[in-house]
Every structure is written in C-alpha cells, then in structure tokens.
C-alpha cells in the first residue's frame, strides 16, 4: 500500500556537497550496521554528512523532526537509504514529502539469494540508483534494475574505515568468556533467519571436532534470541550435554562487539547464504582466522590464502518462516565434516592460525576501504577528495 502514497521520483535531481544516510541505525541488523559504517567512513574522509534514524513501519515524532531539520538544511543532498526495496515506499512516507522533491534517492540494498521476491519490484520505482555490498547481490537485482533502467553500483561496506574502539581494557570476564580457553565465536541474529544463518551446522562441526574438550569453547552470540523462542529451543537441544558450548544473549555495545571478536581465536559462519558477510569480514579485519561456507558473497573475498572456505552442495531453499522459500531459489548446505577438519587444523597449528589471520587482515584492508564509496559519490556529483 505504501507504493500508492509514497512521493514520486523526481527527474534530474540536484546535488549539493552533503550526504544523508538513512536507515534503522539504532537497530542491531546488517542494514543498520551498514548505514553506521558508511557514515563513519564519510566522517573519516571529512565528507559533510548526516545520519538519520528511519523506521519504515513506525512513526517517531523525534525522528521526523530530526529528518525535517536535516533535509531542509541540505535541500539537495543525496539520500542513501539502507532500507531494502519493499520498505522503501514506507520509509519515504515517514519523511517530509516536500523535502524529497528534486533530491537524489539511492537505495542501498542487500539480499541473500540469487532471485528476488516479488514484493521487491515496488522499490525500484522510488530510487534513482541501487547500491549493493557485493557482486552476488548485484546479480540478483540486475534483471529488475534493467527493466526499470536503474544503475547498479557495487559499494562494499567500508569496514576498514569504521570506528575502531580501544578494546584491550575490556576483559574476557566482562564479556562472559572463559579466561584461559581457546574461543571459537559464532555470532548471528535470529531476526536475520535461523535457517539462513544455519547455527546448527556450526554446532555440529564443533561437536565433531572438539567433543567435550574443556580447553576449547564455542560461543554462540545470539541477537534477538528471546524474540524467537522456537529457534532458541532448537539451538539449546543441539548443545545439550556439551558444557563447552555457551549461549550469549547479552545486548552488547559496538565497542563490546569489537571486543568479543578481539578476544576470540576463531570465527565461524556456516551460513547457507550471505549478501555480504559482516561478521566474517569484521573478524578478518582484526586478524582472526575465519571458517565460512564457500558460497554467496563471502566467496568474493575469502579464499584459502586468507581463510578456510568450506565446500557445500546447493539445495532448494527451505525456510520455515517463508521469507526465503522462493520458486527457483537455492542456497548452500555446508560440509560439516570439512568444517570440523578446518577447526582441528586451526586448533592444532596456532602458527598457521595467526598467519592466516594476518593475511585476512591485509585482504580486508585492501578490499573494504572507502574507494568504491568515494567513486560512487563522485559519479553522482558529490564533490569528494580522493587523494
């Protein structure tokens, strides 16, 4: 319904040298983190920018007033919405309609399959361009982008230019981590799909590799766990009898999240599909060895020189929430035996683990800087200094 009332797209929008980034920036989600990271990168490069908290489905007077002030002050600043296509009309409805005229609207979108749901088509009508974090997502949106004559730019999350908090003073005990054990971290949000994040595969691989070894600990960092009790029950059933597997549902600050990765030795993501893979990328940035499913967006930046990719079989999507279960949709079923072997290798060879982490750090510094973002802003007419 939002598509009927959302403001129409202006042709030939004007551009001024300011960038406005909008999205659910107060929410612990991939899109929310992407908006925060982009804003931090612009700040680092001294590009005039503002960050707006926009919720597509709920109105906030405080957020509306803030948006009004920013949009009226920067009348022709491009608006980059880290909000997926189906919610774009609703997001635009929550903003002052008159202040969207003659403004460049860009949708920054992420999706985790090679085909799009039907409800994504509405969003293409309300953006001038589409920015995506990976080639995988670009290929998914390309058919509809071609239909609606939209430019698609691949702008990976510039995590190398995010805020790096001092975390050394945050102890393992403060984070609920064991003091003297090797820690393997699996971090995910249940709001992002239990089936897609596939934590049971990581649990199974750990059990095969480590059993009940008291010197090794698997940490399951679960966001929004209490909101998805049925999923949580399946996880608890899978770890029953294993005292070296710990569930952590604490709400962590950005600094504490960075500290959690800092104190981990290995980070694992046996996902079935990712549109980018923020957790593995952030772990690589701080020199951690990662074990990941070798499919979807993580395939683009993780290979055997900087991580441990795990083989898979493509299978038809089955999703109990019906979010991803689309006609012709496939995703990966990772090889848990291969993942278990990867865990053993990293545990038994700490020098290899550290070397792999160093290579991972170099790869992310080279791959996820702000260059693509600066080029995208230059292409739409924002004045940037790329020197």
TrEMBL record:
The record, for InterPro entries, names:
Glyco_trans_1
Reported EC number(s) for this entry are: 2.4.-.-
Which keywords accompany this UniProt record? Glycosyltransferase, Transferase
GO molecular function of the protein, one example? glycosyltransferase activity
* Record-linked CDD domains: GT4_PimA-like
The reply on keyword Transferase is yes
Coiled-coil stretches: none
Supply the Pfam families for this chain.
Glycos_transf_1 (PF00534)
Top enzyme class, one word, equals transferase
**Glycosyl transferase family domain span:** 171-296
Q: What is this protein called?
A: Glycosyltransferase family 4 protein
Q: What is the organism field in this record? A: Commensalibacter oyaizuii
